[in-house]
Amino acid sequence: MGVVLPVGTRKGLFLLRSDDRTKWEVEGPLLEGWAVYHAIVDPRDRTLHAATNNPFYGASAHRSSDGGKSWERADELGLPEDGELKLNATWHVEPGRDSELWLGGDPGVLFRSGDGGRTWQLNQGLFEHPTRDRWQPGAGGMCTHSIQLVDGAMYVAISAAGAFRSEDGGDTWAPINKHVAAEFMPDPYPDVGQCVHKLLVHPKQPERIWQQNHCGVYRSDNRGDDWQRLDGNGLPTSFGFALALDPDDPDVAYVIPEQSQEHHYTADGRLGVYRTGDGGASWELASDGLPERAWVAVLREGLAYDDDAIYFGTQSGSVWTAPRGAARWTEAARDLPPILSVEAAPA
After folding, report:
1. In this predicted structure, what is the pLDDT of residue 263?
2. Which of 347, 311, 264 lies closest to 8, judged by CA?
3. pTM summary value
4. Which CATH number fits domain 3-346: 3.40.50.2300, 2.60.40.10, 2.130.10.10, 1.10.760.10?
């Protein structure tokens, strides 16, 4: 089956298409003038949705029902005008249950749409969370990302507030950060304040959740009630942003370590994808085909997977792909603008 990759960049959206994952066609840029922090193809109706940001027009969301030929910008997207908080950026868009969509943004906010992304309503449960006064922006802002809906529960991650779970459709949110470090804070294990870089729930074992954190890689086997740290057993560093899973095997995960929070480039100057096949007990380099020396960065939305392959995009404008297992990587595109996100959908 063919695949299409919506690739969000600092300079618009690109669509990469392939019938066999060896030869690729590149379309774009679409949404010129907008930084596309994240984009998806909604599997329910094939609509393209994008979290878009512009220095003049602000934070927004766009939708296209004709494959990117024309776009509709969302109405009614913002925060209460009488409040102190302002919408700084939109970060992640995610299909929900039935016809709903969810959109995460900075400063630690979440929106819901019931009309296909035309209009959005602020989620009050997260906006008015009693711990909000202890949240702090990370280097990229206080962004809500990693929106996950699995098995009746909903999860979000906020940098730097931590991970949260809702079991009532988003009305209320419980922090789920037990045993997750925030080594940059006076109390290294607070209830909230952790800097989660990426969080994913395994689709076939929903009690298992993975996260790449500012302070390590973690796994939970009880829906986030507590966490086990998994780095220091084959990974060159504990720091990184990207995370991907195997859709069938809950013991398999992929990360791309970076040198440190100060440097933000690949560990030891090696573009290294690391794979675990034993739930994080050990990690091995899975970078055959990648350049051995490359000081590049892969951001939190820059690593994706589907039933057949895994994909990632770099800040230097390359998109790489490998079959499941990451046996060998090939370059699907190069010389794009700095890549912010990669997703995959059937063509």
Report:
1. 67
2. 311
3. 0.96
4. 2.130.10.10
